[in-house]
């Protein structure tokens, strides 16, 4: 989701989202979704900058204060992914293997399989930067057998 950006559209979108949330009593939830789900990540990042000019809050804080539950979490996921896709997936991988909780195999498999040929190298860099260990180390500690071998092969350069 990349491409050309339009500063006018970004400013208009920021104003629309502001008015749908902070700028009124109550929240027009569908307005947030319409803009966040239909703009490129580049366009969204420009809109996030424009939003900050209108509000004392960044877009993440605005969403957290205006929306809740799965809906708010879903919109925050779009924002986080738009801001830094490899960091977003590194965090999701970390959460899927966090010590003491057990492995969320569905999340681990889904991310490794869908990202291994796209941006796994960048995800691994973000993972190590944020969590102080390599993704391979986490996978090796959290999995076993052929499952472990397959996952390690998919994340290895």
Give your account of this protein's structure.
Helix 1 packs antiparallel against helix 2 and helix 3 (41-54) crosses helix 5 (69-83). With 157 residues, the chain is mainly α. It contains 10 helices and no strands. It starts with 6 loop residues before the first helix and ends with a helix. The mean pLDDT is 93. 74% of the residues lie in helices and 0% in strands. It has helices at 7-20, 29-38, 41-54, 59-66, 69-83, 85-97, 105-115, 120-131, 135-142, 145-155.
Shape estimate: elongated
**Strands, total number:** 0
Percentage of residues in helical conformation: over 70%
How far do the termini sit from each other? 24 Å
Rg estimate, integer Å? 18 Å
Structural class: mainly alpha
Q: How much of the sequence is in beta strands?
A: under 5%
Order of helices and strands: HHHHHHHHHH
Extract low-pLDDT stretches: none
Q: Whole-number average pLDDT?
A: 93
Biggest beta-sheet profile: none
Write the layout of secondary structure elements.
Elements: H1 7-20, H2 29-38, H3 41-54, H4 59-66, H5 69-83, H6 85-97, H7 105-115, H8 120-131, H9 135-142, H10 145-155
């Amino acid at each position: 989701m990349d491409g050309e950006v339009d500063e006018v559209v970004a400013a208009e979108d920021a104003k629309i989202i502001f008015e749908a949330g902070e700028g009124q009593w109550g929240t027009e939830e569908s307005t947030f979704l319409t803009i966040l789900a239909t703009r490129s990540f580049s366009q969204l990042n420009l809109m996030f900058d424009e939003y900050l000019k209108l509000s004392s809050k960044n877009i993440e804080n605005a969403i957290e204060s205006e929306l809740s539950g799965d809906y708010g979490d879903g919109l925050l996921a779009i924002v986080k992914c738009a801001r830094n896709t490899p960091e977003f997936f590194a965090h999701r991988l970390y959460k899927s293997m966090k010590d003491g909780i057990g492995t969320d195999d569905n999340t681990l498999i889904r991310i490794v399989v869908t990202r291994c040929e796209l941006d796994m190298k960048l995800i691994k860099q973000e993972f190590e930067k944020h969590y102080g260990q390599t993704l391979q180390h986490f996978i090796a500690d959290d999995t076993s057998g052929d499952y472990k071998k397959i996952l390690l092969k998919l994340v290895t350069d």
